[in-house]
Amino acid sequence: MKKMLSTALMAVTVSALALSGCAKKEETKPAASGTPTTTAAASAAPGNASGKDFKIGMVTDIGGVNDKSFNQSAWEGLKALEKQTGVKVKNLESKGDADYTPNLNQFVKDGYNLTWGIGFLMGDSLKTVATQNPNAKLAIIDNVVEAPNVESVTFSEQEGSYLVGVVAGLTTKSNKIGFVGGIDIPVIKRFEAGFVAGVKAVNPNAKVQINYTGAFDKPDLGKAAAATIYNDGADVIFHAAGSTGNGVFNEAKDRAKNGKKVWVIGVDKDQSLEFGDEVTLTSMLKRVDTAVVRVSKDIIDNKFQGGKVVTLGLKDDGVGLPETSKKNVTAEILKKVDEYKAKIISGEIKVPEKP
Rounded CA gap, 31 and 222, in Å? Predict the structure, then answer.
């Protein structure tokens, strides 16, 4: 993602996503395209309070910090903040559910100013730790934990997924498209629902095959799921499966080596930067990095507000498509993406959150 930074993006003001002090999402001016314009590094621009005396910890969901997706995006946000403010950041990786509570407690015990739980599955553990440590400050991505010392950040994944559904529906030549999910939980169902709705909006004849692998950390399962879907004639697959989705890319690359043209739509990060333009059609960016930076900066600036829930969607530049979409998505299709984005932001289109 850091490769996506440009001079223009670095000029975006911190206030674009400075949602602190508001119980609801801040009204922000929509961008002119499907591309999010605020970056983690921009949000951590110089000139803010020094973070040298602060410590911020991050506990990953399963999949690890280098999952090429969700956890990695969050960690890159914290590393950008470290570079800009001098705050000390550290992560602890969770190999399974049993690691959540001990990892969270480790940061609290060590006196960290803020402890992050990254992922829906960490909700119960973070609630327990927050309740047992009322003076600690915690935050979570993708779940709502009702506690006075916790800030919760969620996303309108369905809105960004709708836009990549538009891309898939207008790109497919076989009218067969796939969706590979990780664990069947509400956040992933939002990805699925928005994607299918976007496909159907522009291509009613297309069929979307759904496959949940049951894991966010099993690339082999992602590869097998992708093989099944591609074998059934699909030429585009969108994954929302963490590092399991790496297997979807691996399957696509194997097929490309054998002369078969298939596409993958990445998730969370601009995955073309990792897996290349040959198989990456576009990605559904989910600005976990920006969200992590925003709340972490509140700690440094003494503006943290526990008990708050923030939801980031298209109008907040919380989700969208990367600039690199122009490499493989035609200008005509990107124009359609802009049209649908405007309709979603205006409320003309209400994207479903459930299939």
Answer: 33
